[in-house]
Write a structure and sequence with these properties.
The chain is mainly beta. It is built from no helices and 11 strands. The strands form 2 sheets. Strands 2, 4, 5, 6, 9, 10 and 11 form a 7-stranded mixed beta sheet that branches. Strands 1-3-8-7 form a 4-stranded antiparallel beta sheet, with no helix packed on it. It is globular and about 40 Å long.
């Protein structure tokens, strides 16, 4: 059974930074998604199994960076220049393949989510 444990969420002022972590029980292609109240879950960023390829939603490009430490089976999401519209529950997800996956339905396993709140 794949386990994903997110951490690092919290409350931050607009313009601030947070780093989310997702510890996995193995090595997988990974993604971050978010869901704001009343909205559908949406893609944020993804990284391939090797870490050599990444992809970002247009709304976070240039502000967020996804990375991974394969020795620790951990994926990170560094979030800079945060905006109130980034407020959401952030979920990490794992896909048992190797390539990038940007579509929610292609992910096999999900973490429990971590709340990120950006105040104006």
């Amino acid at each position: 059974q794949v386990q994903l444990v997110e951490s690092g969420g919290g409350l931050v002022q607009a313009g601030g930074s947070l780093r989310l972590s997702c510890a996995a029980s193995g090595r997988y292609a990974m993604g971050w998604f978010r869901q704001a109240p009343g909205k559908e879950r949406e893609f944020v960023a993804a990284i391939s199994w090797s870490g050599g390829s990444t992809s970002y939603a247009n709304s976070v490009k240039g502000r967020f960076t996804i990375s991974r430490d394969n020795a620790k089976n951990t994926v990170y999401l560094q979030m800079n220049s945060l905006k109130p519209e980034d407020t959401a529950v952030y979920y990490c997800a794992a896909n048992v393949g190797y390539g990038l996956k940007t579509t929610l339905s292609l992910y096999d396993y999900w973490g429990q989510g971590t709340q990120v709140t950006v105040s104006s």
